[in-house]
Each structure stands twice: as structure tokens, then as C-alpha cells.
Amino acid sequence: MSMTTAQDPRLDPRLEAFEARIARGEKIEPGDWMPDEYRRQLIRMISQHAHSEYVGMLPEGEWITRAPSLRRKMILMAKVQDEAGHGQYLYHAAETLGATREDMMDALLSGRAKYSSIFNYPSLTWADVGMIGWLVDGAAIKNQTMLAGCSYGPYSRAMVRICSEETFHHKQGKEMILTYAAGTPAQRRMAQDALNRWWWPSLMMLGPHDQDSPNTAVLSRWGIKLKSNDEVRQEFINEHVPELLEAGLSIPDPDLRFDEASGNWIHGPINWDEFWAVVKGNGPMNRARLEARRFAHEDGAWVREALAAYGARSQAQAAD
Amino acid sequence: MSMTTAQDPRLDPRLEAFEARIARGEKIEPGDWMPDEYRRQLIRMISQHAHSEYVGMLPEGEWITRAPSLRRKMILMAKVQDEAGHGQYLYHAAETLGATREDMMDALLSGRAKYSSIFNYPSLTWADVGMIGWLVDGAAIKNQTMLAGCSYGPYSRAMVRICSEETFHHKQGKEMILTYAAGTPAQRRMAQDALNRWWWPSLMMLGPHDQDSPNTAVLSRWGIKLKSNDEVRQEFINEHVPELLEAGLSIPDPDLRFDEASGNWIHGPINWDEFWAVVKGNGPMNRARLEARRFAHEDGAWVREALAAYGARSQAQAAD
Amino acid sequence: MTDLTPQARATLILRFTALADDELILAQRNGEWIGHAPILEEDIALANLAQDELGHAETWLRLRAELDGSDPDALAFGRDATEFRCAQLLEYPRGDWAFTLLRQFLFDAYESVWLSAARASSYRPLREAAEKMLREERFHLQHSALWIQRLGLGTDESRRRTQAALELQWPLSAQLFVPLPGEAELAAQGLLPDLSALRPRWEESTRQHLGACGLSVPAWGAPEDVWSRDQHSPHLPELLAEMQGVARADPEAVAW
Amino acid sequence: MTDLTPQARATLILRFTALADDELILAQRNGEWIGHAPILEEDIALANLAQDELGHAETWLRLRAELDGSDPDALAFGRDATEFRCAQLLEYPRGDWAFTLLRQFLFDAYESVWLSAARASSYRPLREAAEKMLREERFHLQHSALWIQRLGLGTDESRRRTQAALELQWPLSAQLFVPLPGEAELAAQGLLPDLSALRPRWEESTRQHLGACGLSVPAWGAPEDVWSRDQHSPHLPELLAEMQGVARADPEAVAW
């Protein structure tokens, strides 16, 4: 049992200087002093974000083998590859804060770590790939654009890079859905059905309402989160609703309305029970995603062992 | 090194009685005296035949999951099930001669035992399932009808039972191809393509020409083989050529002609090089079939162990 | 039959679809084993099971057809994943022999209690179909229950594999008991079995057998983690791509 | 291009189809790994490989289209198994990591010698395409050759798996060198590489590397066991069912 009494971090004289730097818009870099809580919150957010990219390869990756044209297959492979790359940058960014890849992977595979709720929804038709690009990446971009301005240098720079790639994915997803919305009856049905299933999860993935979001206050003070979940969600809705309607699709929210005064599209009530169930990760789909990740991990154990053995052997030879 | 000099079996006094029984059309039964060579030839033939049923589940079985209607799926499952059942009867028939299932399975999986060359051709389209039923089962029936009259009781009775089921499969295959031959352009193309690929292998599966068939003489004397390969092949051709032509399909043999004098359809030269290559079993497809059998066998090892352990446990409990 | 309300008719159609889809998808998974079972006798047994299941699927689709004039083949081979109403338990890949036989056991036990209750339905076609299927189903349940015994009480390896399958399948099984829209009303009217009454019966009998076979039943998930039957796993579209590929490749075909 | 004889044109079309099909099918198999590789870095590497291969397939289909006006997508997604001209080596399921990387190595080595020779073709579009692809291909070969080294010289387990893959794949590789109808004549005319001259070069370089990696190369099968490119394994229709399912499900679709 530890009996040390930690000094109240709010009394640390370095805190004032740190907060002043943030206020001036300076970036905090890996070697710089930072409060433990700042480090902890960042590791939590960045590793969750990395896991989301890693798990996020699955719902779309399943469709690589089924993409219906050479061009779509190529685009989708490149996109899932980008997601793997994003996972890589983000794991590196978390490592600059002292987290290790092994620990993070272990936390993911054991079910302790979270990842974005959105990836626990299954992709059931080919149009889901387009809808994920348009809505899910669209929502992600709003969030990432905000995070690109965050106070921690490595995270901010990773976000800048990721955002520019995501913008590309977003365009491709939109183009795909617009094609199908103007396509054959079967294609139109498929696009509408995908919208019906992905609309609400896309709103939810931006997080709980501000009053239910426990971390928002501290994250905002330290320049990690520059906007609230509800603000980001509103931006997402305002951009996407008119485009979806123009494509001739209907949005599965009977209460959705345009508010002249604020210039905002106002959505109806969100089913947060579903959100929390998905976030908590007990559902069958969560299990399936983690099973897939665990299977790939265990199935690849002998490869990683061979790699290590070969590396050791090469080093020994080089030392001779 | 064994120095025993076996007595010339042709001098065994029981041989004359044995051959007289066969001449009278009596069946030889498991307990009866029989020449070693009779036993050896029968074990060879029956176990090859059993293996053929067992391996023969594969080319059609692959299409169970892809059958395009509820009725066809049902028929195909029943058919492959029948093949498993035929394998069972035949392994039992070989066991009556002293062969063991383990030895036979080992001979198959190690590549020592042969099975019908026909199952080393792949099924590439759904129409192959129909064409296998019509041609391959059609050829098998000709052979099996002949074997139903053979002198060894258990083999003869297995053949009677198998033949009646095969007749059913043959009808179903024919009905399927007739449907497609009268169907859409794509269905017609598929049926013709299947005929192009299965015609020659079906002729070859009935075995080499009489002059190249080393076992025929002794098998015929002992009433095991009542007709030569060429006779059986001619029966097959005479029955199937008119039906295939009537279906509007063309047979991939430019030399095929009807001989008024004999009333036979005369086929062109058979590419026996291909036949021997397939029989010898070095080709990629042979390897794939045996891999599939070996995989199922190894993959099921733990199940068979559990079965044995459970059996031992139940026996022990019953003895308490 | 003629005095069904439109609502009752719609709900019956939905339930027959769910019944058919469970059987069809399970038949598909079991069909994958034919030719690849650990012993030749089980190739035969699995083929038997799969044929019975396919037969049940056809029966339910025909009961649906009597209500809406639909075509069973068009439903089986022409619908996309989102239009299916099977439970996810049936969608999962065949896995190993323990996975396949445990799923069979859990489903057979469910089907037995469902069919037993359906014999009391006020809808005669359902009553008659249930009566007929129940005879086959008892044999299925015997077969799968015996295998669970062999695997649970066989070797350490077989117990480990069966337990691992149970960890995944038990929470999935809850979806079998989620009522379809309108189903509770039809249960109250005596047209359909009451799923909430069946679940404890199913649970009691499966728990008892699993326990006797040395397996430990994991906890249920939270109630909100139980999905309705319009929520599928990504295994379903994969399965359908294989199952429907030939049928869909030639849209002009009138007969297969 | 205008002075090709009809026979030469037909043979070129056939060869471009074979080249495209090998790459397309390999891209499909490699694509199955994306999201499931043993380390995240290899998800990225495999995705790279698969994209390059798909790009090569498109290039070859475009070269074919210049000769017969065919539509690359229609060829990729509309043909049945019997119309494909890929080698069976590429059709086999992805297997384990050793199987995938060994196939990649054997195929990369083949592609490198083929493309090197094709730079001397008298058919300019082929010459130019080969020049361009060769740059990518050298990187592929480096990557797969390094992996064979790691696996062959890694652990006993990794060597065992790689050796098992080699037993199956080596005899299958012979099919890569079987000339298409009319191809020997075009080789003599300098339009296409001479496969019979390439085989010893390929064999020398692969044998040398495999040997250095502690792997033993099995014997070739008999000459008559080598199949022409219109003979496929049953893995091909299975692969195509998955690959073409969406594209074929809606025959009215003009754009995907």
C-alpha cells in the first residue's frame, strides 16, 4: 500500500508558465514539462484514437475483396492503408508521452481500452463503404480539424496530416453515394438504407452532450479540446444535411428542422442508451471486432517470433 | 528375409471347386475359401472404389453452398450424402476381406492408394454439378451395373444398392443440364462449356483400352469383371451421345460418328497421356484433393481423440 | 386464416421470415462441413441435419407465401443482408467442430421449446407445421446434446474448445428471444408462442445439460446489448455473397 | 501496331489477359490480408503490394483494350472462372503468412525476369509498360526475398511453415512458364519474351535464394503434370464468387 501524499498539482509553480504558454498558442513538445493530468488525458485520447484507426480498418476492409470495380477496389485499398498509417502516427504520438505500443495493444486486446463506438456497427452492404466515407469520415474531420489546433505538438501535427488524407476519403465517399443516389433503383435503395443505418451512429460518435461529457472542462482549459461535442456535432450536421437532401436522400430523423434564427439544422433526440451500450462494449459486435483483432494478433505470433529470432541472428552475425 | 516357398496357388485343390462355384453363378461370401489373388484384387478394387466415393464428395460438395435454388441445394446435399454413404458400404465390403479402415485411410492420405481419375478434375461452374451427375454418374452406373453381377457377394450387394441411388443422381443431373440447355444464353453456354470439359474425362474414367488393361484377364476368369473397359465405354457412349445431341449440345469430338453396321457411336482417339498423368497423381489438382482430405483428417484429430476418451470413460463407468 | 387482422398478418409474415432465415443460414453453415467432417459418419449426419434445416426453411417460406404470395426462392436468393431476419448466432462462420455442435445444441434446444409451444397456436398452418417438425427436431437435439457430452467430457482440448465456443455463443443466444415488432400482441392472442415464457425453459434445460457436461455458462450481457433481429453481423453479407452468387449472376434465368 | 497479323493480335490479347489475371487474382488474395497482418507495418506493406498488382492488372487490361476495345471492368467482374487465364499458383487461398510471402517471392521473381525480357519487345506499348512496372517490381522482390530470409532463417516453426508452402508451390510454379497458344511464334518474332529461356533464369535465382535461406527445393512433377492456363483449381470460382458478387448483383448498374 502506497502512503506517499502527492503534492497538489495545482500548486506546482511550473503550472502557471505551462498554462501561459498554452494561452499564447504555443505548442507543448515531448521534452517539455507538463502536468501529469495533461499527460494522462492525452495518452487516453491519443491511444483511443489510434485504436479507432486500427479497429476501423475492419468494417471497410471486409469489402476490399468485394469492391465492384477496379477503381473502387484501388481506392478502398488505399483508404484502409491510410487508416493503418494513421494508427501508426498516433501510436507514435502516444509513445512520445511515455506510453508503449505493447501496453496499448494489450489494453486494446484485453478489452480495457476504448475505441470509437462507430466501429462496432457492421457494414452490411457495399454502399456502407461510401456512407462511412461520407458521414463517418465527415464527422471525424470536424473533430480532427479542431484537434489539429490542440496544444500538444505531436498530436496536432498528426492531426494535420491525417485530416488532409481524410478529406480525400470524405470526397470519395460522397462521390460514391451521389453516384448510387442517381443510379439504378437497387443502387438508390442501397444508398438510402446505408444512410438509415449510419446517420444516428455518426451523430453519436461525436460524443455525449456537453452536460454529460466529464472530461470537457479540463481538456478545454489546456487547449486539448477547442470545441465542445455539441458544437462539433452542429458543424457536422449543418454541412451534411443540405448535401444529403440535395442528393435526393431522406434523413431518418422525423424531428429534423432548419432553425432560421441560428442558421442551424436542429436534430431530434438521440438514443443515448444505444450509444452507451455500444461504448461499454458488451455487445456481440464489439466482441466480434476484438476477436478479429485478437485472432490476427495470435495468428501472427509465430511471425513476430521469427522476426525477432532473425533480428537477433543478424545482430550476432554483424557483431562477429 | 522370408524363405518360405509358397505352394503354387494354381495347384490348390480347392481352386477347382471355387472356380466351379463361380461358373455356376454362385456368390463367394466372406467366410468362404478364396485364392489369395482373388482377395488381393478385390481389396484393391473395392478400396479404390471406396476412396473414389470419399474423394468424390469434394468436387460437387464445393457447390453445396452456392446452389442457386432451394430445391437444387437440397438435391445436392442429398447426393453428396449418398456418396459418403457409398464410401461407408464399400469400406465395410473391403473389411469383410480383412482390410482395415485405418490402413485404407492411411494408404489414401499418404498418396499410395488410387482413386478414380475423374475426381482430379475441378468443378469450375455450377453446370459442372449437373454434368457430373449426367456423365460421370452415367459412366459409373455402366460400370457398377456390371459389377453388381460380380462373384463376391458383399461387393455385388453394395453395387446393387449403390446403383439404384446413382440412377437417381444420373436422372437429376440430366434434368438439370436439359433445363440449362433450354435456358438463357448464359445457361446454355455454361452447359456446353461443362460438356466440353467433362466429356473426355468421362470416357477415360472407364479405364484404358482392353489391350492396355493388365488386370482384365484374371478379373474376368473369376467373375469380378464381366465386361471389358471398352465394352462398358461403348455402352456409355451409345446411350449418352443421342441424348446430348437431342439436348442441342455439341460433343467435343470431331471424329465422332455413327457406325450403321454395328449400331455403335465410334469416338475419336483418346489422349491417354493426360489420363496417365491424372492417374499417376502428380498433378496440382491431385495434390489439392489429398490436401483437403488430409486437412479434414488432421483438423478432426482432436475430435476423434475426444470421442475415444469419452467412449473409454463411459465404458469404465458402465463397468463400475 | 381469412380473419387475420392486417397487423396480425404482417407480424406472422415477419415471424415466418425469421424462422426461415434462421434455418436457411444454419443449413448453409452446416452444409460447409459436408465432405470435411472429422469422421465419415458425421459427414452423413451433418448432411442430414442440413437437409432437415433447409426443409424447415422451405416450410416456413411456404407458410409466408400463403399469406403474401411471395416466392421462396426469390426470398432466399434475392434478398440483401439487411432484409434478412436471422439471429447472429446462426451467421457466425462454422468455426471448429465444437463451435458447430454447440451452436447446433443451443439452437436445437431453442427450436424444440418454440415448436412445442407453437403446437398450441390458434393458426392452424403453424400448428401443423410445428407438429411435423418437432419429430425431426427431437432427433437433432439428441444428436447435438450427445456431442456436447462427448466434447465436454472428452479430453481437455475438447472441453477447452467447447467452453471457448460457449463464451461467444451464450450472449448471442439472447437475440433468439427478442420479439419482433407486434409479436407480443400475437402471443397474447394465442397466435404465436410467448418468447418471454420460453426463454426460462430454454435456459433451464441448456444450463442443466451444459453443467452436466462440465461446461460453465458465462454471464448474460446487459439487456441493452441484446440486438433486435434487424441487426446483423458482418458475417451475413459474406455468407450471402457465396450463397446467392450463382443465382444472381444470370438475372434472366427463369429456372435453375 | 497496325501491322500486327490477326494471329499475333489474338496471341497478344491472350497474353495480356494472362498477365492481367495473374495480377488481379494475386491482388485479391493479398487484399484479404489488409487489416489482418501480423504487424501493423505489414498491413501497410501488403496494401501497397496489392495496389501495385491491381495497377498492373489495369495496365494489362488497357493494353488488351487497345487491341480489341474490351472493357477492363467487364473483364474483371463479368467473366466466369473458365474464361480466366491466371495460373493456379495465384488462385490458392492466402494460407498463412509463409504461404503468402513465398508465393509473393516466387511470383515477383518470375515477374522480374518476364518484365526485364519484355523491355526488348518490338511491340512498343508492351515495352513501355514493362519498363515502368519493373521499377515497382524490384521493390516487391526485395521485400518478399527479405521475408523469405526472415522466415527461412527465423525459428524452426517459421522454417517448417515456409518449407511446407514450398512443397506445394514449387510444382505449381511450372504453370507460369507454359506458353499460350501461338506464343512461341511471337517469341521467335521478338514480340514477346521466350518463356523457355526465362525459366532457367528464374529457377537459378529462386533456387539460390531459397537455398541460402535454408529451404530445400522439391523435385518438379513430370512434364505431363504441368497444366495449361485454361486449367484452374476449384479455388478460382470460389474467389470469383466473392470478388464479383456485388458487381453482378445489379445487372442494370452502369456505374459503380
From TrEMBL, chains A, B:
Pfam families reported for this sequence: PaaA_PaaC
GO process terms (BP): phenylacetate catabolic process
Transmembrane annotation, as ranges: none
GO cellular component term of the entry, any: cytosol
Lineage: superkingdom: Bacteria
Gene Ontology molecular-function annotations: phenylacetyl-CoA 1,2-epoxidase activity
EC number: 1.14.13.149
Gene3D superfamilies linked: 1.20.1260.10
InterPro entries per UniProt: Aromatic_CoA_ox/epox (IPR052703), Ferritin-like (IPR012347), Ferritin-like_SF (IPR009078), PaaA (IPR011881), PaaA_PaaC (IPR007814)
Alphabetized UniProt keyword annotations: Oxidoreductase
Protein name: Ring-1,2-phenylacetyl-CoA epoxidase subunit PaaA
UniProtKB/TrEMBL annotation, chains C, D:
GO biological process assignments: phenylacetate catabolic process
Keywords: Oxidoreductase
InterPro entries (UniProt xref): Aromatic_CoA_ox/epox, Ferritin-like, Ferritin-like_SF, PaaA_PaaC, PaaC
UniProt keyword GTP-binding, yes or no: no
Cellular compartments per GO CC: cytosol
Molecular function in Gene Ontology: phenylacetyl-CoA 1,2-epoxidase activity
Matching Pfam families: PaaA_PaaC
EC number(s) recorded for this UniProt protein: 1.14.13.149
Enzyme class name: oxidoreductase
Name the UniProt record assigns to this protein: Ring-1,2-phenylacetyl-CoA epoxidase subunit PaaC
Organism, scientific name: Deinobacterium chartae
